[in-house]
C-alpha cells in the first residue's frame, strides 16, 4: 500500500497526473464532461465498454491499451464482467433460467443490449450484431479478444468492499492535499478497512 500511494505521489509531483485540487473538483464528472473529453488529460483508466461514450464527446480518435506490465512478470488481468445468477432460494428458478438464456443466447436480446456492458459471452451472438457496431465498439471487442488469454476470474468481493474501494481514494486524496503522510494514510486505511469489513 505504501508503494502504491508512493507511485501516485511521485506522479503528482512530476506533473504527470492532475494536481489534487483539479482531481478532487473534476474527477467524478460524467464522461462527456471529463478531463479526457475536454482535452485536459491524455488518458484515463476506465472499463473498455466506456470507449464509445468518451468517443462521442470528442473529435480526437481514441484507442484502448492494457496496463503496462513487468516484462519479466506474469501478464494476468482480472476479468471484470457483469454476471447473472439464480438464487438458491428463488421461487421461480425455471423462469429465471429462461430469462438468462434469453439474454445470453437470443438474437433479439443481442440486438437490444448491443454489448452495453461489454461483448456478449456468446461468440455466436457477437457475430449477430458485429456488422452493426460502431468503430469504437469494434475496437472494444477486439481489445477484449486480445486480453482474454491473459485474464483470470475476478474474485468475489466481500460485503463492504465498495466502501473500502472509496477509502483507497479518500486516503490518496489526503496524501495529495498534504493532510497526511503516506505512512499515516496507510495506517488509517487499514484501520478503517478492518472496521468496515468486520461490520
Task: Describe the structure in your own words.
With 199 residues, this protein is mainly alpha-helical. The protein is built from nine helices and two strands. It has helices at residues 2-13, 20-26, 51-56, 93-105, 107-113, 123-129, 135-147, 161-176, 182-197, and strands at residues 77-79, 151-153. Strands 1-2 form a two-stranded parallel sheet. Helix 4 crosses helix 5 and helix 8 packs antiparallel against helix 9 (182-197). This is ABC transporter substrate-binding protein. It comes from Paenibacillus cisolokensis. It holds the Pfam family SBP_bac_8. InterPro entries: SBP.
Radius of gyration: 20 Å
Number of strands: 2
Q: What gap, in angstroms, lies between the N and C termini?
A: 23 Å
Major β-sheet strand ordering: 1-2
**What is the 3D shape?**
globular
SSE arrangement, N to C: HHHEHHHHEHH
